[in-house]
Fold this sequence. Notes:
Number of helices: 19
CATH topology: Growth Hormone, Chain: A
CATH superfamily: MFS general substrate transporter like domains
Shape: globular
CATH class: Mainly Alpha
Helix content: over 70%
CATH architecture: Up-down Bundle
Strand content: under 5%
Radius of gyration: 21 Å
Strand order of the largest sheet: 1-2
Structural class: mainly alpha
Largest sheet: 2 strands, antiparallel
Distance between the termini: 18 Å
Amino acid sequence: MNNALTGSNISDNLPDYVQRPPHKRLDVWGWSLYDVANHGFATTILAVIFNRYYAGEIASGKAGVAVDFFGSKLQIPGATLFTYFVSISTLFVMFIAPITGAMADEAQRKKLFLILSTIVGVVGSGLLYYIDKGMWLYGGIMFGIANIGFSAGLSYYDAMLKDLAKPEEVGWVSGFGWSFGYVGGGLLLLINLLMLQPPAWLGIEPVRIQVVFLTVAIWWVLFSIPLVLWVKEPRTGIKVPVRQLFTESWQRLMNTMRTARRFPDLLIFLAAFFFFNNGVQTVIMMAAIFGDQELQMTTGGLIAFFLMIQGFGFVGSLLFGKISDRIGDKTVLLITISVWAIVCIWSTFIGLFGNAIREFYIIGIIAGMVLGASQSSARSLFARCTPLAHSAEFFGFYSVQARFSTLLGPVVYGTVLWITGSIRMSILCLLAFFVTGGLLLWFVNEERGSERANMELAGE
Length: 460
């Protein structure tokens, strides 16, 4: 077994060119540009346009659709139905991520698994072009396929971070990637806005909203090319048959579950992450639906709102990425979780100061500043506490937590909405996720966790 799997010290596992500053390395740029690629799906499909269109038009908004459930007719609101399709697709990823992550580690083929996941996501997104009003089942299934590709790919993409960066660079590179993502997601949103509501001076007609979903697939392919060409993955030189690879991956996964007990800070972090990421991901996904159904904002107004968030997300990612390398990822995360809790409470009572839409924009600015920071700092903290030899499979567990966060959070939100009929009550219930996550994170010792991961790498 080669050094990348057994390991002797961190520098032995990184190629010579990693000695150059990260912003001067093509592999870091290629890896970061993939954040541009998949953020098109995260913004246009998950957060801004498709989710609102599906909940409000395809699934008939607050009136909902009648679903035959074992002989009983259930009238399910459109927003609730959307959250359930999110949960079903992420439940699938939750089960496959650890084993496929272990397979990627054994074969040293994280990039290949990422490419395959990307193909699934691109195909699902492209097929949304054929969706129309009333096609709630088709739309839900195609969205689910795309979300499986998006979610599964994140674990391999995140796991590549420790192959690219030295320990002292992890926070910066992680924030660099997130900042690229916000620029990319914002740029595609701007293009989509011009497609749906072009200004008169352009002299073009608005396109059907389905064309917007097709642009997500094209965008995803184009900005994945640099990662394919520029990121070189360390290889073992050992060829393992697929059947043996699958068996050994299961064995390695079982061993990982047993050895995970040696990393207490990593385990506590995963528990904290599970809770606070529930809140973050659900707020992101449901904000456009809130603006549409609660505040009656237009499509153009909502896209402008999210463009603003992307801009502040870019600034926040770069700013907090640098700060996290100085004060620690844990401190940055505690700050961002506190801000998210304030956002949650304010959104519940929005309009308290007279103008609900103006307050919504202020909340968006605040959320944008901590959005990228909370995600990139969580990723880099996990990377610091993860032994390099087990990066893909440990990030498989991380992905399980991330995906389970987008399984439970939307289910709770959607179910509360279904029962109470109140979007504001659905938002208020998310506060419990932030409070619990923050309390658990308080007990994580970042320094001890990083030292333990380095000791494991050195075989101590």
